[in-house]
Each structure stands twice: as C-alpha cells, then as structure tokens.
Design brief:
Layout lengths: L2 H8 L8 H35 L8 H5 L10 H11 L8 H11 L8
Length: 114
C-alpha cells in the first residue's frame, strides 16, 4: 500500500459511509459469491464422480461430498468488518439458505441457485 492509499483509508472515519470502504465491501461480497459458486461446483463434481465410482450410492455420503470445503476466515479482521457492516454480523457462508442448498446438492438435488 502506498502512502497516498494509506491516507485515503484514513479519510474514512465512518467506515459505513466511506466510498473507499464501501467499494472494498462490494469487492469482498462479490468474492464471497464466487466462493459460494465454486463450492457448489465442487460438490456437483464430487457427486458425479461418486455416482461413477459407486452407482448404488452405498459408500459415499453427503458428509463426504461436503468435507474440506470450509476455509477459516472468522478470525480475519477484514472479514469480521465485512460481515458486521454488510450483513449486520451474519456470515453469508453460514446463512441457512446457502447451507440448506449445499446439503440438498450433496444429495443430488440441484436447483442451480449457486
């Protein structure tokens, strides 16, 4: 970050109304939607692979399909500010609609929401 960029950030005492901060929040929100889409695509691919490897669906479970998808970011100060300002403290990666969608997707029910 250059000195000029640092000074621009310092000019935002009220982060919820600052154009620079709002622009960052919009960028992060767009990236979160991309991550949600990529997680959904991962589960779709895993589901298809599991169908090919286990046509009777006896070996693989929804838990297997959803495993290792989370990336911890809760301790990141920027992410905490993003969810505080943009979603009033709620984490879009944990919203019921997204979690329910991912669980349905792991069972082969795909409404292409993400």
């Amino acid at each position: 970050m250059t000195d000029n960029e640092h000074m621009a950030w310092d000019e935002c005492p009220d982060s919820e109304e600052c154009e620079l901060v709002c622009s960052f929040l919009e960028l992060v929100d767009s990236m979160v939607r991309d991550i949600q889409h990529l997680k959904a695509e991962t589960v779709r691919a895993r589901y298809e692979l599991c169908k090919a490897l286990d046509p009777e669906h006896e070996r693989f479970t929804a838990v297997d399909l959803l495993s290792n998808l989370d990336m911890p970011r809760y301790d990141n100060m920027a992410y905490q500010e993003y969810v505080r300002i943009y979603y009033d403290g709620g984490d879009p990666m944990s919203f019921k609609g997204f979690v329910d969608f991912m669980n349905r997707l792991a069972k082969g029910i795909d409404d292409r929401q993400y």
